[in-house]
Specification:
Strands 1, 2, 3, 4, 5, 6, 17 and 18 form an eight-stranded mixed β-sheet that branches. Strand 4 and strand 5 form a beta hairpin. The chain is of the alpha/beta class. The protein has 18 helices and 21 strands. The structure holds 3-acetylpyridine adenine dinucleotide.
């Protein structure tokens, strides 16, 4: 069965490959690449982990690289998400760059740092790596168009700057385009209203105010537990309960970090996080749920719950998320934890209902500290918007379908992100003049979650179709940056003009995304894992779910095989164009699709297929 599938993929691949190669040739061939004054080897968009890491590695190799960032400071997510309580949910040192020149001299104060400390870390990083001079802040990229004459991108910004880089990296992550539902009357609200990911720098004083929080994802949970104790009244609007688990936050000392650096723990963690399915250092129990007694299971869960972080999930029985009995028992364990903390039985039932709303792990559970205790306050109300949706926002508050008008001074929209729009909201146009938004109108197609056909020399990181949500930022980003930087070096070293994926490779990758997601629980709930958090979108899994370690290996192998699954093109000084469609890594081999010019008479044997 598997063999037949593979053969048919190869067949399909061959056909698509031929089409792709013929269509890649521009109508006229340029003789040389004119160097514009504003040309750069690489332009990077965004100065979070990925942008800075790319910039540093590329400059180390001697390339002219620069970052444009719409923000006024580095930090990416941690620049924009400065809402009360914003805090990372991967513990240190997993959540930092693995460069020894950075971690050796940096110390944290908390196991899960908050946004202020993360911003300090980013300021330290750009200083220590001496890259700040290559970053233009307050500079938003508004368009990027490929120019088939110069074989460069033309990138324009909202400040009027235009540059012409050879390579373009969108280090924009998955969560930089906030999603705000089109609530009727939202614009009429007379109080203060902000999305968590566009929180004002100067903060909003919520002390003694009546506050509404709409949404109970990671952002909502954090805001609620932070502002709950200080507000006059808190109205929480929950559509789906968050299966939040114990963070077990604590202070970390300079001494313990020093010891872990000196005894080899830090470097071991940085290497280990590239080997596991989750990008953390732990792995699932190698035995099935059914092989353990109820007592063994209970004690294991108690122990991993007490350890905090995602340990409860990551070190669970390997089949807990897909075995219905196991999933129900995990849910019951979690539900007991919640009910033990929430005194009001009606609120407890809304937060952790008897009927399990969706499989555990189908949506991302948050890590909480005092979230459930907040609901014990008499001035906190909880409305189930799956039963009583928000009908309208009035000048004075929020009206729900049960007829209740919740009068508030502040509305916090903790309503998440439009994952694909993070990149597509920029007017990016490839070789054929088509925008990325148009290209992805019927679904996301990428190779390795990093590159798109018809969009030459363009990469993106920590976005759709990579392990993104099933990893943590720095881990995924380092894998991808290593791939991208090596690829750019390879292109430059081999005098190659541009690279882009084969459409066939994108189809295969998309199929991989579906297959790996079908093997888990992630398609069984509506949310940003599968693009269903945005009304009107069709289901499509947005993360590679085959495991971080496996993804790292795949990327490494693609590079070793001379960028299998990609088309590489070079312009010769004679004005001719040569195309390589890579297979098995024979980059300079005569057996490849080297061709001197576009011609209908080119033999089909010149076309080689990507591997299945
Ligand atoms: O967004 P979300 P988030 N009416 O999409 C609700 C990362 N992150 O910003 O679940 C009523 O998870 C929606 O309800 P439902 C992190 O990876 C990390 O919280 O769709 N409600 C949901 O409750 C995280 O997982 C950090 O039924 C509506 C909420 O809004 C990811 O980003 C901090 C609604 C959106 O939750 C996303 O987290 C911030 C409507 N019309 C972000 N529309 C940390 O590291 C939506 N909702 C901690």
């Amino acid at each position: 069965m598997q063999v037949m599938r593979t053969q048919s993929l190869i067949k399909r691949t061959r056909m698509i490959t031929l089409k792709a190669v013929l269509s890649i040739l521009p109508s006229s061939f340029a003789t040389a690449m004119p160097e514009s004054e504003s040309s750069l080897d690489v332009l990077i968009v965004g100065s979070g982990f990925s942008g800075i890491y790319n910039l540093y590695q590329l400059r180390k190799l001697g390339y002219s690289a620069r970052i444009f960032d719409a923000a006024s400071k580095s930090g990416g997510t941690w620049y924009w998400n400065c809402y009360p309580g914003a805090r990372v949910d991967s513990e240190i040192p997993v959540y930092e760059l693995s460069l020894p020149e950075l971690w050796k001299d940096w110390t944290w104060t908390e196991r899960f740092p908050g946004w202020k400390e993360l911003r300090k870390y980013f300021a330290y990083v750009v200083d220590k790596l001496d890259v700040k001079k290559y970053i233009s802040y307050d500079t938003r990229v508004v368009s990027a168009h490929w120019d088939s004459v110069s074989d460069r991108w033309t990138v324009t910004t909202d400040t009027g700057v235009v540059v012409h880089p050879r390579f373009l990296i969108f280090a924009t992550g998955f969560a930089s385009m906030p999603y705000s539902p089109a609530f009727k009357g939202l614009e009429t609200f007379e109080g203060i209203c902000h999305h968590t990911a566009r929180w004002p720098e100067e903060d909003v004083d919520m002390k003694g105010k009546r506050v509404a929080v709409i949404g109970t994802g990671a952002s909502g949970v954090q805001v609620i537990q932070e502002v709950g104790p200080v507000v006059k009244h808190l109205a929480v609007f929950q559509r789906t309960p968050n299966f939040a688990i114990a963070m077990q936050q604590r202070k970390v000392t300079v001494e313990e970090q020093k010891r872990r650096k000196e005894d080899g723990t830090y470097p071991a963690i940085f290497r280990r996080r590239l080997q596991t399915p989750s990008g953390f250092w732990q792995e699932a129990l190698p035995k099935p749920f059914a092989s353990a007694t109820p007592e063994e299971r209970f004690l294991h869960w108690q122990q991993t719950w007490a350890q905090g972080a995602f340990t409860f999930l990551v070190t669970n029985f390997y089949d807990y998320a897909i075995n219905d009995d196991a999933n129900k028992e995990v849910y019951a364990f979690w539900r007991n934890k919640v009910h033990a903390r929430v005194t009001d039985s009606v609120k407890a039932e809304l937060l952790a209902p008897q009927v399990q709303p969706h499989p555990f792990a189908a949506k991302r559970p948050s890590l909480e500290q005092t979230y459930y205790e907040v609901y014990n306050q008499p001035n906190v109300t909880l409305t189930d918007t799956s039963k009583y949706p928000i009908e309208e926002i009035t000048p004075k508050g929020v009206r729900t379908a049960d007829g209740v008008h919740h009068e508030v001074d502040v509305i916090v929209l903790a309503t998440g992100f439009n994952i694909t729009a993070t990149i597509t909201h920029i007017d990016i146009r490839g070789r054929k003049g088509k925008s990325l938004k148009e290209k992805w109108a019927d679904g996301v197609y990428t190779n390795l979650g990093m590159a798109v056909s018809d969009f030459p020399n363009m990469f993106f990181t920590y976005g759709p179709q990579a392990p993104t949500a099933f990893s943590n930022g720095p881990t995924c980003i380092e894998i991808q940056t290593n791939f991208i930087v090596k690829c750019i070096k390879y292109m430059i070293d081999n005098n190659l003009t541009f690279i882009e994926p084969l459409p066939a490779a994108e189809e295969i990758w998309r199929e991989q995304i579906w297959e790996t997601n079908k093997a888990g629980p992630w398609l069984k709930a509506k949310g940003w894992y599968n693009d269903l958090n945005i009304p009107g979108k069709s289901i499509q899994p947005l993360n590679y779910a085959g495991g971080v370690g496996k993804y790292a290996k795949i990327c490494e192998e693609v590079g070793q095989k001379g960028y299998e699954g990609f088309t590489l093109v070079t312009r010769l000084p004679t004005g001719q164009t040569r195309i390589w469609v890579h297979d098995q890594g024979k980059v300079d081999s005569e057996a490849q699709a080297g061709r001197e010019s576009e011609s209908e008479t080119q033999p089909e044997t010149a076309i080689v297929a990507v591997g299945a």
